[in-house]
Amino acid sequence: MSGANGIERLDTIRVRTPEGAVFSHRLASPVMRMLALLADWMIVSAGWGIVSVAISLLALVSVDAMRAVSVIGYFVVSQGYSIFFEWRWRGLTPGKRMLRLRVIDERGLRLSLWQVVLRNLLRAIDALPLGYFAGGATALLSRRCQRLGDLAAGTLVIWEAPEPAPDPALLGSEKYNTLRGHAPVVARLRQAVSPGEARVAWLALARRDKLDDAARVELFADLADHFKSLTDFPEGVTDGVSNEQFVRNVVDVLFVERRSSGAAR
């Protein structure tokens, strides 16, 4: 897409991870980013309103000290808020989560702490001279909508579409499942596997054709080892079954058979 400034702007980028997987991401628009920033600012302001009441008591001792603590305190609270959440929530803040935005590394690596710190500290430069002008202008001139902080830290802000419901067709046409006929094992698996673990296995199957061969083998070996560690399996359930097929069998009994039985009722 070409903007009014002649810059060939990108709506979608493709990031190839070190494991060989290629993912397409939709870049967040400047408007969406500003809305997320506004939401975070409102949360910080609400929290700061409470803290500032306590700080105002310093005026009883020294007005200058109260003002100095207020300036430093607001900087620490506002920057600490963004750094804490982006680091702990892997690129999210409450505002970004509301708008389905996420900060990612532009090379497909895991977001590092120094990147989070750098992009947030440079927000003060992006805000210059007024109203986030420097950051907004830089984002408009950037093909990937990066403000100064993103350019320095090597980060992007993407929009994550809602995940579609699991599609049984992604599991392929394989009908045989060694777990069928072992109801106690299936019941134990359903109790032991968390929703997050089930989701990771499902996404691995959905994206398996995008992985390099070595990465694909390693990923499904790790997943299979994890599921096998959750409960005991009788002979014949895992013997002669590849790691990828075993993970497929687990996902099948976690998602597909449960949905089918629910529909039958």
UniProtKB/TrEMBL annotation:
Where does the protein end up? Membrane
Pfam families for the chain:
RDD
Q: How does it sit in the membrane?
A: Multi-pass membrane protein
From which domain of life does this come? Answer: Bacteria
Key words of the record: Membrane, Transmembrane, Transmembrane helix
InterPro entries documented for this protein: RDD (IPR010432)
Q: Which residues cross the membrane?
A: 35-59, 65-87
What would be one Gene Ontology cellular-component term for the protein?
Answer: membrane
The chain positions of domain RDD read: 28-154
- Record carries keyword Mitochondrion: no
Protein name from the UniProt record: RDD family protein
Where is the organism placed in the taxonomic lineage, from the top? Answer: Bacteria, Pseudomonadati, Verrucomicrobiota, Opitutia, Opitutales
